[in-house]
Amino acid sequence: KAGVTQTPRYLIKTRGQQVTLSCSPISGHRSVSWYQQTPGQGLQFLFEYFSETQRNKGNFPGRFSGRQFSNSRSEMNVSTLELGDSALYLCASSPQTSGGTETQYFGPGTRLLVL
Amino acid sequence: AQSVTQLGSHVSVSEGALVLLRCNYSSSVPPYLFWYVQYPNQGLQLLLKYTSAATLVKGINGFEAEFKKSETSFHLTKPSAHMSDAAEYFCAVSAGNTPLVFGKGTRLSVIA
After folding, report:
1. How much of chain A exceeds pLDDT 70, in percent?
2. Distance from the CA of B25 to the CA of which of B16, B52, B56, B103 falls in 20 to 30 A?
3. Is residue B29 within 8 angstroms of chain A, CB to CB?
4. Do the beta carbons of residue A4 and residue A24 sit within 8 Å?
């Protein structure tokens, strides 16, 4: 089976712009979670989507949003980019909803640099 | 709420030496615990997980971890370090249907 894929892998934007990142989960997986990874804050949960519905949301401002499509592919959008949004954005998929004993399978990430 | 503390942001060992990466957790309900590894420019890969079936959990690449409720710990060990083990290691906790909460990570260096 193909793993979790994320596009693009690298992105450079300027402050104030918006960006959309894409994640394709492992075939058959219905849950997609997004994480932000930075040297200072580590790995922080952004949100989770399951069957096109947002199931959980982390403590991030409303500039961060996401959605999931009927084929389980997910996108996350960040509007009005700030310098502090520079990070590695990781997507993870799991067969069922995350949490409990469910294993999450991570993609390689999209590295976003905001100038 | 759950939390994870990884003691030591950087651990350095000699090739062939014991690897010990420390993880302590806090959870108000019985936790599920995970260790993930991240190689440079890659995503995270599951090493092992504790699901309450057995306190000693064996994972991939010769790693294992022991769940100790009395110490609220889930330390990761490997008897003999290999150069290929150099990476960043993350401990994570989940309880109920809550999202994974990760520790800050420990970077493991292996010296030849």
Report:
1. 97
2. B16
3. no
4. yes
